[in-house]
Amino acid sequence: MEAIKENIQAVLADLPQHVRLVAVSKFHPKEAIEAAYSAGHRIFGESRVQELQEKKPILPDDIEWHFIGHLQPNKVKYIAPYVSLIHAMDSEKLLREIDKQGKKVGRRIPCLLQVHVAKEETKFGFLPDELKHILSSCDWKSLSYAKISGMMCMATFTDDEEQIRQEFKTANSLFEEIKKAYFAEDADFCIKSWGMSDDYHIAIEEGSNMIRVGTRIFGARQY
């Protein structure tokens, strides 16, 4: 577990001051999270509701839990009372369910618009034109408990760094366009969540201010 402390300190030391780190703890045991926590880190990302539900009660209360996976609308109610940020808001149905469950527990739940920029059909998210259509047509401004706080994306899983860079560049340009058109007066719309263990340096160069790093910190997944 000492290696985890060293790894997370190395990643943090490598980041510009404006970039926040989400330590992706999915599939890793409580002890691994405790090791990262003991190094001073407080932001952790999970991608399965059941796993998050099991971990939260047995870990410190001041952890900021981010949900980074594909979230089914019928699972929102389980994490609504405490989740700090939902990264992958990928449908209008999910947005409305986040608002509904936020109202039930009396808290605004920040979430990110997931945009699909990768050359992989398996990735979730709005296509750029689809995202602009939804923002211009649905009554999302009337939602009081789902707080749209930025954008998230994933690059194609490839060794082609130029392709990865172009995808992040596309995401950054889209963020600026969306910000200007729909959130110009909203200071909370500021999160650009892209970049993972193998590509976060490129992501930061292309505008990211929140990265999601797992393997570089915790090592290979433990299934």
UniProtKB/TrEMBL annotation:
What is a GO molecular function of this protein?
pyridoxal phosphate binding
Q: Keyword Repeat: yes or no?
A: no
Per its UniProt record, what InterPro entries does this chain match? Answer: Ala_racemase_N, PLP-binding_barrel, PyrdxlP_homeostasis
Q: Please list the residue ranges annotated as the Alanine racemase N-terminal domain.
A: 2-221
The entry sums up its family as follows: Belongs to the pyridoxal phosphate-binding protein YggS/PROSC family.
SUPFAM superfamilies in alphabetical order: PLP-binding barrel
Organism in which the protein naturally occurs? Pseudoprevotella muciniphila
Q: Which UniProt keywords apply?
A: Pyridoxal phosphate
General function of this protein: Pyridoxal 5'-phosphate (PLP)-binding protein, which is involved in PLP homeostasis.
Alphabetical list of HAMAP family matching this protein: PLP_homeostasis
Q: Which Pfam families match?
A: Ala_racemase_N
Matching PANTHER family: PROLINE SYNTHETASE CO-TRANSCRIBED BACTERIAL HOMOLOG PROTEIN, PYRIDOXAL PHOSPHATE HOMEOSTASIS PROTEIN
Q: What is this protein called?
A: Pyridoxal phosphate homeostasis protein
Source organism, top-level taxon: Bacteria
Q: Does the keyword Acetylation apply?
A: no
Required cofactor(s): pyridoxal 5'-phosphate
N6-(pyridoxal phosphate)lysine (modified residue): where? 26
